[in-house]
Amino acid sequence: MLRIAVPNKGALSEAAREIFTEAGYRQRRDSRELVMRDPDNQVEFFYLRPRDIAVYVGSGTLDLGLTGRDLFQDAQVGDTAEEIMALGFGRSTFRFAAPAGRYSSLADLEGKRIATSYDGLLEDYLATQSVTPERIVHLDGAVESSVSLGVADAIADVVETGSTLKAAGMETFGDPIMTSEAILIAPSGASEEARSVLMRRLQGVLVARRYVMIDYDVRRDLLDAAAAVTPGLESPTISPLQDEDWVAVRSMVQKDQMNKVMDDLYALGARAILASAIHAIRL
């Protein structure tokens, strides 16, 4: 049975529940449950603190883990675990911030106090940039308050919208330390065969989220032009209609291009244009 670590709370927890549910796996209904067995799919989910997931996976106790790239790197598990799949949600940026106008570059942090909840990640980054702070101040949360309270001169934290920083009178500066998103991790060197079905399912969900299915009717003499608008992954599906001058076409289209494609098809002469969601796919 495949043993998988999933965040027990926070934004990643809900997103993880959604993607595994869409992939056909049972998920817990009560947030107090720590383990969920899915015997039909030979999978067992363990709901853990997001910061601990990399440690469990790196030790080989669990076969897979869903966590954030920032949390994975901050755990400093070395080469005992590896990222095997980016999941495209939970995106954020890890950046430096300070009171507006105080600093403009990374070099300004030489000899300064920097507050963060990501000590390992920050230490590794500063080492590569040859910047030595006075010290790194570890805080478990609310690092935005550390400067105004005199604990630090600047902070390094995960930034999503930046609204929290702005409310605290702070601004980001310098280049981003890293960009993060939800990822799937596994023990280094673990068998790929055991996890292949799960990864195909997750990949199918991710692709289905990015595409829609477009169906439309078009005159046969316009088919080549219409197919150029909707080429699909390999090629569109063409079906004859009772009226021999017309054909029905079906093709996958990127969701963010859906309305433009429908407009272009209509302008070309296609009719009965229908877009429908794709719930799952195998490529």
How does this structure look, described?
The protein is of the alpha/beta class and 283 residues long. The protein has 3 domains: 2-89 and 181-194, Periplasmic binding protein-like II (D-Maltodextrin-Binding Protein, domain 2, 3-Layer(aba) Sandwich), CATH 3.40.190; 92-179, D-Maltodextrin-Binding Protein, domain 2 (3-Layer(aba) Sandwich); 212-277, Alpha-Beta Plaits. 26% of the residues lie in helices and 34% in strands. It has 8 helices and 15 strands. The protein has helices at 11-22, 53-58, 69-74, 119-129, 163-167, 196-210, 223-229, 258-268; strands at residues 2-7, 35-38, 43-48, 64-68, 81-86, 92-99, 113-116, 135-138, 154-159, 170-180, 182-187, 211-219, 237-240, 246-254, 271-277. The chain has a 6-stranded mixed beta sheet. It is globular and about 80 Å long. The protein starts with a strand and ends in a 6-residue tail after the last strand. 31% of the residues are buried.
